[in-house]
Amino acid sequence: MYYPFLRARQFELIALRELAIEGALQGVIIPILEPVKETHNNLNLAHKVFKEKDQTAYLIVNSNKGGLEEDNPYYIGYLATINDEVFMPAFHYRNNAEYIYKSIEQFGLTNCMLICENDIEGDDINFKSIAELAAISHITVNDPGRNRSLNRYIRGLQKDFIRLDDLFEKKDRNSDFLGIIEHRFSEEHIHYTNEGFEGFSDYTVLPKEYVEGGSTPRAVVIHLTYLNSQNEIWIRHFTSETNDSIANVQGKFAEAAAKAVNYCRRNGLSNSAITELETYFDTEHYPGLGTVKKLSIKNHLLVLSNFLRNR
Prior knowledge:
By secondary structure, this protein is of the alpha/beta class. 38% of the residues lie in helices and 18% in strands. The chain is built from ten helices and eleven strands. Strand 10 (221-227) and strand 11 form a beta hairpin.
């Protein structure tokens, strides 16, 4: 099972809604959503589609990204108002065992996910007191191979153990992608079961670090992943050429889209995200940077969905 880690922002959620409608997620992909603001309009839209299409997701209830404070009660209250199993609770563990325990008890939570870093010490009894709760069914660890004792401990709990990896190589400027050729992105989808994990997770084609807002870029990049002949996931960065100013974002998109569409057509790459990109290119329509990000995310999830369904 693949657990993509995404912020619960507009275009990430649009990508997931469209894929759920397409039937591309069900049975192989369960997203982990981390909200960054105290608003749930877009989450409500996603929840409605997910419920209709029998899709689930984990919702982190104690995000500290964006405008949210650590262990903010807003989203656990939101889950209580929904009161179904479409959005399931996930907790960041950061020396906050008392908060997690009280939340589980107060709201009668089950099937919870615990997300932690790999720096937990073997004698952390607070972590163990939470990890061993029956209400915790999934434990996700960032780069778990760096802490063997934690690895062994979690495996002994007989819970779903998920590895989380930060795979996207972020650059300071979009224009820095211009000289980068295709390169290997991930092999976790091939090896995770052999390594004893029940699932794997990454930040898709987005950086781990959350950045509030954004400015008009000097360059437009379309990040597309694909499977090579060995079923490894590789990535190409299709970058605009006229990157000396922030002017003419539409023209920059056309340059990047031309590279991406021509590559996909030459190599026989096709799915609903690529088809949508081809339509924008062929009709000379600029859909906006949010949609560009959406298409990259959709493509990545479709690559993994197709692999997991057909392996």
